[in-house]
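Sequence design from tokenized structure. All designs in this work follow the same two-part layout: the structure record, then the generated sequence. An example of the structure record is given first.
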């Protein structure tokens, strides 16, 4: 199965594009760039979007970045770029034991481990009938994003690193 930008691999679901729940984006405030946006989306996640065909990994990132990267082996590439950029928030699975998590998440500025598993959305704007199947975490780089996680009122456990 092929993984797409801003998407999550799910063999049981048979597709690879899963959108961030709108309340997550709303709670975190405005973003300047989403480098992993689906080409077709029912709502915006930032002022500027790069789709799969534009390959956000090869583009310059500007301002505050929202990152819902492809899940799997590519996730570390996207987190590395966000870490170097230093201004943004990523949404990934909370796989705390992985090398990728140690390399990029435990070295972030803050984490928000979400209470309950998320329900992602389809590109037509409908909520998936099943939850994500794993816990999620928001990963913040930069002081503004640390404050956003701390003050967002998304249920979970906030940890400043």
């Amino acid at each position: 199965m092929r993984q797409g930008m801003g998407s999550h691999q799910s063999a049981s679901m048979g597709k690879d594009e899963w959108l961030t729940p709108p309340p997550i984006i709303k709670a975190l405030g405005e973003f300047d760039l989403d480098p992993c946006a689906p080409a077709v989306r029912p709502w915006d996640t930032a002022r500027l979007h790069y789709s799969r065909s534009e390959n956000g990994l090869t583009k310059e990132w500007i301002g505050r970045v929202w990152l819902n990267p492809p899940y799997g082996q590519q996730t570390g590439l996207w987190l590395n770029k966000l870490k170097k950029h230093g201004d943004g928030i990523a949404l990934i699975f909370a796989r705390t034991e992985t090398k990728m998590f140690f390399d990029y998440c435990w070295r972030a500025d803050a984490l928000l481990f979400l209470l309950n598993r998320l329900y992602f959305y389809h590109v037509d704007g409908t909520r998936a009938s099943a939850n994500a199947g794993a816990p999620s975490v928001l990963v913040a780089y930069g002081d503004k994003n640390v404050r956003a996680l701390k003050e967002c009122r998304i249920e979970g456990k906030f940890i400043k690193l």
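The chain has four helices and seven strands. We note this feature because it recurs in several other targets discussed in the main text.
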